[in-house]
Fold each of these.
Amino acid sequence: MTMDTSDTPYLARGVQLLGTDSSILVSSSKYLNEPRLRDWVAKIALKKNGADYPPAAEMYELIQILQDLRDFGRIEELFREERRVNPALDQWFNEWFCSDYTIDDLRDCAPGTVGGIYYQAATEGNYELQIVPNFQPQTQWQYYSLRAGQTHDYEHILTGGGFNYIGELLPYWFRLATIDQHIQNKELAGEMNVMGILGTTRYLLRTVLHYPETWGAALKCIEQGIAIGRNSEPFWMAKMEDYWHTPLDEARRKLGVHGALDLDTEAEGRIWGGLRA
């Protein structure tokens, strides 16, 4: 029997709801099935910013949720498959380099060098060098996760994203683009980008809903991040300690960073963070 859709609004056509005997919410998406993630997405999409629950705490909560959702066995298999066709990634894993330096190790880096810029930003902003505590990674996923945290602040510097809330969008979108560009297996690329896309979504929604005066700056960061990720070498795999004493422009050339400009988003970052009306 053909259903008469003449009276159904165009955008509402094609809906075919499925029945179920389940007494709880169930879907084909493991993400939708996770009540903690549903609550997190709604909260971070709609809330305003406040000192009572800073953005860093939001990401800490997300990490714990995703840990329980990931199929780590499948991820390890995907990394092994990718390494067979991706020599740069295979070499990166074979080297297995992990950082263990402190802020004092950067003290003697000259102003304008990668290390000097990082030292100034970290000391003035009272930032921790390690986003997550150091540990000895036992799996490929653990190594990727550890190094992503250890190189994140360098990606701020190399891509031109300021150390503020709006500037955070630049390394976010660089990562989302560079992983897609340099990881051939798209299932693996998706796993590597899950936290990034959820993390940046909160910025996009809250910026438009509550801080629209900062949206133009946000768009510039997104555009530049995507362009750098698409057109640059996978410098997220670089040993950044080798470039501490290198002037920023020279480091960008040596690492194959293309299209980077230093964007001033400090004023917009303060608005977004609720530090100025």
Note: The mean pLDDT is 92.
Amino acid sequence: MLLAGAGHLTWARTEFLAQVPKWVPLDADFVVLASGVVELVLGAALIFARRLRTQVGWAAAAFFVAIFPGNISQYVNGISAFGLDTDRARFIRLFFQPVLVACALWSTGAWAAYRASKRSK
């Protein structure tokens, strides 16, 4: 997440701009910069905020859900970015977003903590 966040702010900014849906009522550059800052904060929190690990896991999962419309927009509008230059490549990428959500929940223990809280009730 730290690498992606840094990319939002620097070398990959144009690529990320291509993924901001046209219907978002904010300036696309602002969206890219803000999401980069969020990714940097989440990445740093995953490393340094050990006591908040499950909460950070839920926040990261929510972030991945929030950016999913951008991936859908990239596919629907046929926008090439990040080497995704065919409809097939853009479509296949859509299936990896739920994997990112699951990884955020699993790797931080957020899902296990949620299940444990349900069992204790």
Note: The two ends are 34 Å apart (CA to CA).
Amino acid sequence: MSNNKKKKLTPIQQEYQAFQEQREVKRPVVKNCMKAFLVGGIICLIGQLIQMFFIYNFDFTEKTAGNPTVAVMIFLSMLLTGFGVYDRLAQFAGAGSAVPVTGFGNAVISAAIEHRTEGFVLGVGGNMFKLAGSVIMFGVFAAFVIATIKTILIQWGGL
């Protein structure tokens, strides 16, 4: 017998499935996508304004203004998370607030705030990078793979 055949549902299972479909909350996907797009775009616009501030006021170049811009954006998201503002923004925007670098700052500080009652070492220090640790690890690994590929291409004279 093949596993591809569907099992017949009993009348109770069919009744439960119909009940579940009636009660399931319909998600406004297009509306959520628009909110995520707009909020993510506004966050990126703020980042661009901060970068332009560094370029025009501190004589940074476009290349060198990136690091302080990222640092300021992460600091702002951590500050806003501490005051509870970023959480409300994330509730409204969903992925629009999680995808930019500000989502990383929010993830780190949220874990620290959540475990602060356990103490600074075991609570904050031990749990701060639980969620963000995988992001850091993936970033380091991806950078290593890309640098290796670039090095190989340069050695072969491709770049």
Note: The radius of gyration is 23 Å.
Amino acid sequence: MKRRFKRVYIKQHYTPSKASKTVYYLNHNSWWDGLIPLYLNSYHFKQHARAIMEDEQMIKHPFFSKIGAFSINLKDSKSTIRSLRYAINSMKRSNSSLFIYPEGEITPVSSNQPTFKSGLSWLYKQMEAEVDFVPIALYQQTFRDSKPELYIYIGESTKPTKNLTNQKLTNHFELALQHLLTQTRNVAGFTDEGFKPI
């Protein structure tokens, strides 16, 4: 992190307790996103963490499996369900967490609403009621230096009713993350209001 980024800033509205179980969902803009969960869990959350990663990336970078990641094949529906069920089982441990990138692929930063696959909503309906679902916005900018600055905005737990359709749930999660990204883009590299360097 120190070699890659000029500075790292964080804004944190959610801190898990020792009894918490949490699913963190993040936007996916760069290869480095795969290491950010390791950093966040080591220094901020300290939970029993796992992460879902696209199988092609796991094949290219097998060391991710050594730091708690497991693969998902989005091109095979049966394989996708197996991976999601494995994710649910991993959350049965106390103080467990799961990191997921619901866009399913690296997507350029945009002011538009992100587009999620349906897996996050499916997980939400299958998970126990006490599991928190927390959006995390990741944003990089180079306004002040050729080396990028990284902004991490950890939002509050969001708990929509489980009676919603998968499409409406997905839209809810997309809007929650878009809100964090918009707030971050408005201050990153300018005032940095609400963020602190780490």
Note: DSSP finds five helices and eight strands in the chain.
